[in-house]
From TrEMBL:
<keyword id="KW-0408">Iron</keyword>
<dbReference type="InterPro" id="IPR050295">
    <property type="entry name" value="Plant_2OG-oxidoreductases"/>
</dbReference>
<dbReference type="InterPro" id="IPR026992">
    <property type="entry name" value="DIOX_N"/>
</dbReference>
<feature type="domain" description="Isopenicillin N synthase-like Fe(2+) 2OG dioxygenase">
    <location>
        <begin position="216"/>
        <end position="251"/>
    </location>
</feature>
<dbReference type="Pfam" id="PF14226">
    <property type="entry name" value="DIOX_N"/>
</dbReference>
<dbReference type="Pfam" id="PF03171">
    <property type="entry name" value="2OG-FeII_Oxy"/>
</dbReference>
<feature type="domain" description="Non-haem dioxygenase N-terminal">
    <location>
        <begin position="62"/>
        <end position="169"/>
    </location>
</feature>
<dbReference type="GO" id="GO:0046872">
    <property type="term" value="F:metal ion binding"/>
</dbReference>
<protein>
    <recommendedName>
        <fullName>Fe2OG dioxygenase domain-containing protein</fullName>
    </recommendedName>
</protein>
<dbReference type="InterPro" id="IPR044861">
    <property type="entry name" value="IPNS-like_FE2OG_OXY"/>
</dbReference>
<keyword id="KW-0479">Metal-binding</keyword>
């Protein structure tokens, strides 16, 4: 057997750990022809092969919402948004108001960061069990199946959630670009929450007024090529813990996730993939629960009121596992 096709034990032992988990880009570099057992999913949990074709087909069916038309008061577009929220909880946004150059620059610098030497990226380590920095999040046991990706996760707003020592100083202008990008995405989230309130026949500012000093974080996911993409997942199936999630994947427009849709990311056998994900959520001290106007005898309350900070702690200390974190608030 050609030695180049074998992941030698001495090479594997030299893979540097990020927290408790091997750096996936280093695994891909030193032993490209194999996939370590810990990344291989059980049959029912695999993406089904095709190197991401299923994911592409699903993306082609995702509803497209024209924010410009919503701003002009288009009732038909509002109906499309209502249907997308009810049936998908996930939709693509066009005419969203985020300048292409802002999106391009953020994507460009994120990719440049992941291309840095490992020793440079290690300056911003994600601590075991942590959720900010470079590495892997949501890893809680030695026998847990791992995702085929590396992450850079950063708290943005409010200021007290930031960890400045984890904000990269390389590439140049990374922090300034992230600041500018985050402002634009926050404006988008506010506009979308306004229109989502309208789909429920609520006052347009109803949700924005409930959030308090909203929490905003960003996570950049890098998925290197995988020799067996049909056997791994780039990101485990999960539902997000935020109110709104804005996803920018490579050069595509952001797609926004609402409701608690379950989703996952698949790997590719030939190409790397990059996504920039923004999470927008209520302040930690906000009390949340079902809106009273939606609780009736026919539709009784199924969730209790809870403190959002407590839910956030529950979410970040639980492994990604479908919609399991919703059990936190169930009556």
């Amino acid at each position: 057997m050609d030695s180049a096709a074998v992941c030698r034990s001495e090479q594997a032992s030299e893979v540097i750990k990020i927290g408790q988990v091997d750096d996936v880009q280093e695994l891909q570099r030193v032993c490209f022809a194999t996939v370590p057992e810990r990344y291989i999913r059980d049959g029912d949990d695999r993406p089904g092969g095709g190197g991401g074709d299923d994911d592409v087909r699903a993306q082609q069916r995702i509803p497209v919402i024209d924010l410009g038309e919503l701003l002009r008061g288009g009732e038909e577009e509002l109906d499309k948004l209502r249907l997308a929220c009810e049936e998908w909880g996930f939709f693509q946004v066009v005419n969203h108001g985020v300048e292409e150059e802002v999106m391009y620059e953020m994507e460009k610098l994120a990719r440049e960061f992941f291309m840095l030497p490992l020793e440079e990226k290690e300056k911003y380590p994600m601590a075991p069990g942590g959720i900010q920095g470079y590495g892997h999040a949501f890893v809680f046991s030695e026998d847990q199946k791992l995702d085929w990706c590396n992450m850079l996760a950063l708290g943005v707003e409010p200021a007290f959630i930031r960890q400045p020592k984890l904000w990269p100083t390389t590439p140049t202008n990374f922090s300034q670009t992230l600041e500018k990008y985050s402002i634009k995405i926050r404006e988008l989230c506010l506009r979308l929450l306004t229109h989502i309130a309208e789909t429920l026949d609520l006052q347009p500012e109803r949700f924005n007024g409930m959030f308090g000093e909203a929490v905003q974080a960003v996570r950049m996911n890098f998925y290197p090529p995988c020799p067996r993409p049909e056997m791994v997942l780039g990101l485990s199936a999960h539902s997000d813990g935020s109110a709104v999630t804005v996803l920018q994947q490579d050069t595509a427009f952001p797609a926004c996730r609402y409701k608690s849709i379950e989703h996952r990311a698949v790997a590719n056998g030939e190409l790397d993939r990059l996504s920039v994900v923004t999470f927008y959520a209520p302040a930690y001290d906000v009390e949340l629960g079902p809106l009273p106007e939606f609780v009736t005898d026919e539709e009784p309350c199924r969730y209790r009121r809870y403190n959002h900070g407590e839910y956030s702690r529950h979410y970040v200390t639980s492994r990604l596992q479908g919609k399991k974190t919703l059990e936190f608030a169930k009556i």
